[in-house]
């Protein structure tokens, strides 16, 4: 926290914009307050519907705008940040260049990146949980109750063969990280990466040289495997060899089946995710969302958990992140690119690699990225 208690005027900059120093003064939300915030999110969802009505040309009544003000005030008081969070923006311009300038100006030191399948598609890795892509066709002989059963933990315990059959046909011959994976490594090298959360199990972040402690593999990983009997651990190379042999991977100690540490349906997320996520998002001062449709939990709601002053940049082929009406009633706010009150959400449409290239260019990091790209890829 900054010193000097007399400067409680966070409104000192022109255009009522928060400066980098001001951002440092904002106190993190305590877990107790976060609980209260849950109630408020419900209130806020109702008010944002009024905003939507406004956009659709329905004239707001004076009463409803008074309600809005009351809600805003209540919300702001609870968050200890005055009305700044909702009224003011930290970006000079709410666009891609505004976010890049925010980084260039040194306003963020704790960037959190969130990655989905779109980040790995250029590495030739299919989104293999999605049925209908032909990937499941060769599983017909197993007479699965439904295609997704291959990733169901109860089904796996009874019949692990279909999973390993699928893994054999999908295992990439070469683990070559994409340009975007290199960009994550570059953020770490620049000292700006707080954490990289990925839904992908392909270990390409590790292959790109991102440090283990910077990575949270929210849906697990092929990096390690464990015996379903005695819990003995096996490494990626061992599992790869097993997958390409025709036998089931069997534990060398107890003969039970060994399963890669990817999260199956019916299994909980890795403990590391729960240990880190709350604190990371509270500290996050720029959220970059890469190649995900933001419909799978828990990623879909993570975007709500950063502070209200945290800008959010989506790099994706489509504009996503607006929750359904039902989810909004449950308090999920999501991303908000198009409303008049948007002060922090920016969308960059395109592939993750092109987005990484655009960010590197805007930040003057092209040479650094090229250097990383020329390094040999492959698992460490
Ligand atoms: Zn064992």
TrEMBL record:
Residues covered by region (Disordered): 1-67
Gene Ontology CC terms, in alphabetical order: nucleus
Domain Deacetylase sirtuin-type: 89-366
PROSITE patterns in UniProt: SIRTUIN
Catalytic residues as annotated in Swiss-Prot or TrEMBL: 219
Biased segments, Basic and acidic residues type: 12-27
UniProt-listed InterPro entries: DHS-like_NAD/FAD-binding_dom, NAD-dep_sirtuin_deacylases, Sirtuin, Sirtuin_cat_small_dom_sf, Ssirtuin_cat_dom
Extent of Acidic residues compositional bias: 30-40
Record PANTHER family: NAD-DEPENDENT PROTEIN DEACETYLASE SIRTUIN-2 (PTHR11085:SF6), NAD-DEPENDENT PROTEIN DEACYLASE SIRTUIN-5, MITOCHONDRIAL-RELATED (PTHR11085)
Protein name in the entry: NAD-dependent protein deacetylase sirtuin-2
Organism expressing this protein natively: Amphibalanus amphitrite
